[in-house]
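Hello,

Our lab assistant flagged a job as stuck in the queue for most of the afternoon. It eventually completed. Since we weren't sure the result was trustworthy after the delay, we are filing this so someone can double-check. Below is the sequence as submitted and the structure that was eventually returned. Let us know if re-running is recommended.
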Amino acid sequence: MGNETILYYVFEETVTGCKKIVKPHFWRKIKPLTFVLEEDDLSVITIMIPTIEKGWKRDKLLGVMQKGIEEYREYQGYIGSGDTVIHPKLQQILLQKESFTPIFWKLAEKLFTDKFAPQKRIPDKPYVQNGLTLNRRQTPEAVVLLLGNTFFPEEQLERFTELMQPCFPYINQLTVVYGSDDEEDNELSTELEDEPDYAINESGNRLEAEIDDLLEMLYYEYGLVGRIWQVDGFKPQPPEIRNGQCPILFLDYGYAGKLPYSMMRNGGTYIDVLSSGEKERCINKKCSKISYMSPLKYLDTMVKSGYDKLVNQA
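-- returned structure --
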């Protein structure tokens, strides 16, 4: 990942797990707690905003957030360049929508590497678990790429190709899904209708042209036959996973259509690059076998763990 710095604003109770309400007085200024977490090549400067008795107003919250980083600079010195991440609960008070930050690309890459560890693949050393002969490599056998409208198609496909490059020789099934982001089609918790599958017509639009180029390259380079599914209007079938193989990987780059729950019923790993809170709630509710992962969830887990270690050392 390289040396990266994240400035993370989050409510104190999100990190500590304890809700402590502060009663502000005119003679006492509210000072947010700050600590720094170092992990590998990642530095996270965490500024924890306390919960106040009557709730935060936007202007006052902005002032306390600014004071937190000013005090850190005063005692710790220059921060340097980095990415700023604001927890969604704070974004709501600031009248902001859930926003994507570039560091999420790199955190998603770390999630993928930690989970599937393609560099640790040992294809010639099987082992036995529950009576099944398994392979030590963790590369998923089937991958579903869900494309969105937040980024250009070229950027999404380029990042996907770079991320999955070590795994392509071991993938047997690849499905590229895209769908509408119209309001009536964007109910994440709505099941798809039971309609017959249909082939995507060759409309020649930009997105399909980019996908076709990717699939042609993968077939030429690795013999991997992929398929394109526009999710609106049909119910896709889940990829077939053989016994002993790793579960399916869903890689979401901001997909805005109906979630393909029928493809997810057998479980697997879902990496949500944009870290949508609404999408996490829907997946956890309807797909108990899916392991949901996101950069924001990873960041929260890392910060909580780092805070607990500091408290235990004190």
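-- support follow-up --
The delay was a queue issue, not a problem with the job. The result is valid. The chain has a mean pLDDT of 79. The radius of gyration is 22 Å.
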